[in-house]
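Input record, target 12 of the design panel.
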């Protein structure tokens, strides 16, 4: 019985570790993906904003 109990506890611990590592890896991957998407979206928005702002500044300053 003791061997079976210890075997079960070892299995449950290893399963818990595997699930925990999988969850951490998933969270890390999602965080990285969101960060990359937000960075790309931020760069796109900033470049589009600068393109939309610069012509108005070029046209308004000479006038």
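The sequence produced for target 12 reads:
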């Amino acid at each position: 019985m003791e061997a079976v109990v210890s075997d079960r506890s070892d299995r449950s611990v290893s399963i818990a570790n595997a699930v925990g590592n999988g969850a951490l890896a998933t969270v890390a991957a999602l965080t990285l993906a969101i960060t990359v998407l937000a960075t790309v979206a931020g760069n796109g928005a900033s470049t589009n904003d600068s393109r939309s702002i610069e012509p108005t500044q070029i046209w308004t300053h000479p006038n």
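The mean pLDDT is 66.
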